Amino acid sequence: MTTPKPRIGLFVTCLVDFFRPTVGFSAVKLLEDAGCEVSVPAAQTCCGQPAYNSGDRAGARALAEQVIALFETFDHVVVPSGSCTGMIKMHYPDLFSGEPDWRLRAERLAAKTHELTSFLVDVLGVAPLPINWEGTATYHDSCSGLRELGIKAQPRQLLSAVEGLAVREMRDPEACCGFGGTFCVKYDEISNAIVDRKAADIRATGADVLLSGDLGCLLNIAGKLKREGSRVEVRHIAEVLAGMASGPAIGETRK
Amino acid sequence: MSGGLSSVSFPKNAHAALANPPLLKAIAHIEETLVSGRRRAIDALPEFEALRDAGRDIKAHTLKHLDLYLEAFEKKVLEAGGFVHWAADAAEASRIVLDICQAAGARQVTKGKSMITEEVGLNAFLEANGITPVETDLGEYIIQLRAETPSHIIAPAVHVNKEQVAADFRRVHTNLDPRRNLDEPTSLLSEARGVLRERFLAADVGITGANFLIAETGSTVIVTNEGNGDLTQILPKTHIVLASIEKVVPTLEDVATIMRLLARSATGQEMSVYTTFSTGPRRAGDPDGPEAFHVVLLDNGRSAMLGTEFEDMLRCIRCGACINHCPVYRSIGGHAYGSVYPGPMGSVLTPSLHGLEKSAHLANASTLCGRCESVCPMRIPLPKMLRHWREKEFERHLTPKKARYGLAAWRFLATRPRLYGMVTRFAAWGFARFAGKKGALSQVPLAGGWTRWRDLPAPEGGTFRTEWAKRGRK
Hints:
The complex is a heterodimer.
Chain A: E1 7-10, H1 14-19, H2 21-33, E2 37-39, H3 49-53, H4 57-71, E3 76-79, H5 82-95, H6 100-111, E4 113-115, H7 116-124, E5 132-139, H8 143-149, H9 153-160, E6 163-167, H10 183-186, H11 188-205, E7 209-212, H12 215-228, E8 233-236, H13 237-241
Chain B: H1 10-18, H2 21-43, H3 48-64, H4 66-79, E1 83-87, H5 90-103, E2 108-111, H6 115-120, H7 122-128, E3 132-135, H8 138-145, H9 162-172, H10 185-202, E4 205-208, E5 212-214, E6 219-224, H11 228-234, E7 238-244, E8 248-249, H12 252-266, E9 274-278, E10 292-298, H13 321-324, H14 329-332, H15 343-354, H16 360-364, H17 371-375, H18 382-395, H19 401-414, H20 417-435, E11 440-441, H21 448-451, E12 456-457, H22 464-470
Parallel strand pairs in B: 1-10, 2-3, 2-4, 4-7, 5-8, 7-10
Antiparallel strand pairs in B: 5-6, 6-9, 11-12
Helix pairs in contact in B: 3-12, 9-10, 15-18
């Protein structure tokens, strides 16, 4: 090997850290299989998006500083979430207007930060190791990944290589699931109406698993499907791609 | 739902809307009509994205030189024999319109569809002063009979179904034959048309809005699908155009560019059925037209948006695409917003027009999903501006205490990684244990907003960071 391995800092996100470590381990496996050297800085917490979207710029800025300092030395920063990637990539520089030094650091970090499926396809250009996973999936495009980062083809391209897996599209996979961060508890009744439509769209596909790239959406959709008594499994796409989807799905325990 | 603004009670309004099945059924039609129509029209126009850039640039340029273009417009209107009146706010605009109507000895006025007249509350003001306004757009006519406000900027009666319209017509059109069939939209249309025809002829003044004001020619432009706007402005002796200042564009050519975006984004039509240019009153030799032509230019908070983070909002051409694609609007309809303008564009505009104190809910009641921006023909960064309002709310300490404390607590914890690690490790373990074999929780203290409607999937157990450390990894 002549070229050194790219050094990746994995930002696991606060939701994955707390709710679904499997997604983090799946991301590590995918990156290592692709020839990367992966580190997970232990002091990482939250990217600051809840504060940013609630109008608390100072709070968001404090967390952005922390993330920049922790991750700026890596070759790339990879995040298994379109939403947190969008925060770092599209919004961090804006938090430091009028502070040229910090802004430069934020811009440098933004430039090398990537959502996981986009990193695998667009940056590394490698296919994950071949795996076999039987089932019919439908894929929900998370809003930030889709509309802030243009992620649409990448997850589908990766899924098309999974043997035994068929993907059946929803009528409107690009419709918001109603999560919206704190929106889902502040305006819970409206949020419920939105996720209700998403659940109906998922059911109409007849798929037995719902995949997406953002844990916020997945927790919301899984929570709704579970409440409805649906048998549709909900998983992060990384679990399937890494061959780590044999354990309980989100909101399930081992049967 | 008539009367004053009720954005302060947005959650209550939304709750009522969600418990109103006929309303929800009526709004659901937006998908198969306006949304699908837009999709088809845009798929058939390869240069649509380039047109969006062109439209944005025309409006952005005009806003940078708004004073010059408005003065040029005024000059051309005067040259064509018309009058221009400047109104700083809603009250002044209403007063100017009333003065013109009274000078013309008007008792009845017809109106083309105009959101600006809704914004200034013109109908109520005219009625209070003894003048009867008659809405001539079918949707506006329906909601006028129902004493409601528009629930959508291009489809004001989108919340009403045809059975309700038939019942309203039978209630108000008292000479209507009870055997008359009013089951179909076409029969409703011809019934309204018959009644309105007489009103057109009886009107002393016709009032319309404007989709564009053209600086180059002094023309005002309206687009309609029913032709009612033409009859409103041609038949009476006096025509009043009430328009807000950001409607001005430099040239006819610019109108041609933006028009290609407007109807496609609004209804999925290539063009509206009628596009009407008005330049001054009737000239010698003209077969028809009003004897007097007045343009009332309304500011009402808009000039204060220039040069601020909200300036881009003034590019809006009122197509309604953001509204049609908004998951929140599609859940509750327009009246729940309690504002003149609903949906994303309304949630950005309303605080500028009526103050943030009365409308802070609106900017927060969004998932920031970004679909509005992705369909906006003028590329207005609506989510960014909703966030700007949230920032202003936070700066002015208008954010509810519970949310402020929550944010402060989260910041305290998340900026102390060791403490954060301990708290999350303990909480994840606790939640997982509490959920046990169910894998999800149906009730969680302090998370009622979540668990009222959804289960909360339980954490797997250990946090990623602890599991990672256990493996001796860094």
